[in-house]
Amino acid sequence: MKFFIIRHAETELNKNGRIQGHIDAELSEEGKQQAEKLAQALSKEKIDAVYCSDLKRCRQTIAPLLKIKEIPTTYTKKLRERKYGIFEGKPKEEFFKYMSVDNFIAKYKRKIPGGETFDKMRERTAALLNRIIEKEKDKNVLISTHGGVSIAVIINLLNGKPEKDNENYEKYRASNTSLTIINIENNSPEVLLLSSTKHLQTEKRRIREELNAQFGISELPFLLIETGKDRIRGYSGHLSKEEIMQIGRLAPVEGIGVYLLRKEIAEWRLSFDALHLLKEQITKNIFEINEQQLNEWIRGNDLEIQAPAGILIIKYKGDFIGSAISSGTKLHNYVPKERRLRSKIAKLL
Is 280 assigned a catalytic role? Predict the structure, then answer.
């Protein structure tokens, strides 16, 4: 049996840092976009049943998915957020200030005027989970709920101890539209994914973050165009993404923009043009060579040399002259054939 546990997408109250509890808030525009991305991420998953809080923000979060897939869905008050009583609609700071007279765990154990304790919320969640497990044996179940309840669901599924709620609350804290996947086999739970929001990242953001980790690049001032497998071009003209897509339906788009980068196994390799367009941002994985090595390099030869393994930026004095894959003992050359010096020409030089 597998559980997909999601926290609802962003609301305006989330955005403004206010406590919601049982307030029936709707998703913000950003939240609606998050729900669409979540639907795409889950569209290929096998989901047999959905259990959802009856509040609008949770219903709206799963609505795009239910347009794609017909899944039996149960809406229930049992999955509502913790009732925050007098603090609903108020800034979070007021709630934290009120709780600060007690120790940290009191935030979850102490009863709120007009509200409920975390323990009470956890108990009602546990009762519902037991019914779901009994009814949906060996099926895949999606639960669309709230931040506090998603934590309670995870704690219950993992057989957490009440005395450790304080520690677990922080460990399992969920962001808007986060996804947790727990597989249960022979009564043994296994966390496959915990509070992940990776599905919310745009492709450009994902590429930028990977380039930042690899080379220190933080900005990509281009419209990115994928042409072929893991091959990316950059365009900075007046055409919109939609116009380029229309052109792509009529003719190849290889002539639009500049070839920037390509995925090699698990890392990005920058093109010669990208090295110069992004030169000021590149700070990592740079390997400097001497004049003798340069002469070999521009002829297209590999270099027998000790260097860190992975994709490196080759530098000579103040210039980047190409990318290489290093095995640790050899730099494999990526100088394009048209940019290599032929031996006869080299002799004349």
Answer: no
Residue 271 forms part of a structural domain: no
Q: Is 81 a catalytic residue?
A: yes
**Dist CA 180 CA 158 (whole Å):** 12
CATH of the domain at 295: 3.10.450.720
Provide the 8-state DSSP code for 269. E
Backbone angles phi, psi at 11, to 5 degrees: -115, 170
The pTM for the full model equals 0.62
Catalytic residue among 8, 22, 88, 146: 8
If the chain, 349 residues long, is cut into consecutive pieces of 10 residues, what is the mean pLDDT of each piece? 96 92 93 91 94 97 96 97 94 81 55 87 93 94 96 89 65 90 92 89 81 93 75 80 67 72 87 93 95 90 92 94 92 69 44
Among 22, 81, 88, 146, the active-site one is 81
310 and 259, same domain (yes or no): no
CATH number at residue 109: 3.40.50.1240
| Dist CA 165 CA 151 (whole Å) | 9
